[in-house]
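Appendix B. Raw example, untouched.
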Amino acid sequence: MTKKLFISDRHSDFKEYVRLTQSGIFFSAQFIKSNDLGRSNSVRFYEFTENQYKFGMEFFIEQNVPGGFSLVRNGSSINNFYTTARSFTNTFPVLRDLIKSKGHNRFPVTYDKIEKCFFFTVAPCFECNNESITIPEGATGIYRYRNSDDEVIYIGRGNIRDRLRSPERKDWDITKVEYSLINDREEMAKYESYHLAEYQNKYNKLPEHNMISA
């Protein structure tokens, strides 16, 4: 019998964060309080062209701000609110898939002094789903394979097309390749380890071919 620590999905290692759910985007009370945002009534979101996993936020006391989303009070506290913002989360595959997967959904918030807005960065989550022939040539990042039973059988990193064409993988029953495009090697390694840990925490084992390769 193996002892395994239970960690609630409400647990967070940081106090100032956003939480992405199917109901909307929730802001932690500590984030609102620490940044004196309790009087806010609307929020605008931004994307960053140099980083598809980074999203900015700007809060306003005014209502009906152009491009803004209304904030909804969640209880009696002025420091407890959220926004549905479905048109925002549905626009970006990485956000849409994170919410759909119901996995890790809390991300720390930081202030960007250059852009003059708050921002959060989400983890790449294999938001690209293409057949092998349509994977861009030279594309690098993290990827995972699914078999004919739709089970995840391998999580890896590197050149996505080249690794898929490796002779030893021809008999792996790979029917779907899901991936996130990342250029930086350290970022690839970090997120590969992140997703392997997420998988192991959920199933108490590694994907089939990660166990064989280990």
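End of appendix B.
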